[in-house]
Design a protein that fits this description.
This protein has 158 residues and is mainly α. Helix content is 55%, strand content 0%.
């Protein structure tokens, strides 16, 4: 296996968290619908807001890596939905589906033989490349998946 293929596979493992950390699918499996919009004590956002944050950030990073005209995220409140908004079961499933579809798009992008992981992203700070952006995405996702799992445990929702 060439170093490039092996590096790409390691990035995919980070994105899907097949090695040693909780995976997104386990995090949301059997989550009680009556708690979609619940906010744990001393947390300003709900479980759904946290899922939306993951979806928004991951989608933005894909745009950042693939769009040479990337201009930054355009939601006025940044990378979080308005904390007063709520969802229903269809919205919850839509967020999960969009996150998983985007993650699969990112995996395909990383695995594509024509993707140069060291390509400098001209729309960003010096030294940023696709490898860096992919690792940032995986790290961010992992952080919030762990946060979601902890908050779920604090509220006794496992």
């Amino acid at each position: 296996m060439s170093n490039d293929i092996e590096l790409k596979q390691q990035l995919v493992n980070l994105l899907i968290a097949q090695k040693g950390t909780m995976i997104f699918e386990d995090m949301v499996r059997y989550f009680p619908p009556e708690y979609y919009n619940s906010k744990p004590n001393n947390v300003p956002y709900s479980f759904w807001h946290l899922l939306e944050h993951l979806r928004i950030c991951q989608a933005d990073m894909i745009d950042f890596m693939q769009n040479p005209n990337y201009a930054g995220h355009l939601i006025s409140n940044g990378y979080w939905p308005n904390f007063n908004t709520k969802t229903d079961h269809a919205g919850w499933q839509s967020t999960i589906g969009a996150y998983l579809n985007d993650r699969q798009e990112l995996v395909k992008f990383v695995q594509n033989p024509s993707t140069d992981l060291f390509k400098h992203l001209s729309n960003t700070y010096k030294g940023r490349n696709i490898l860096h952006a992919t690792m940032m995405t995986a790290e961010h996702n992992s952080y919030h998946i762990g946060e979601f799992a902890i908050l779920r445990g604090v509220m006794k929702l496992w």
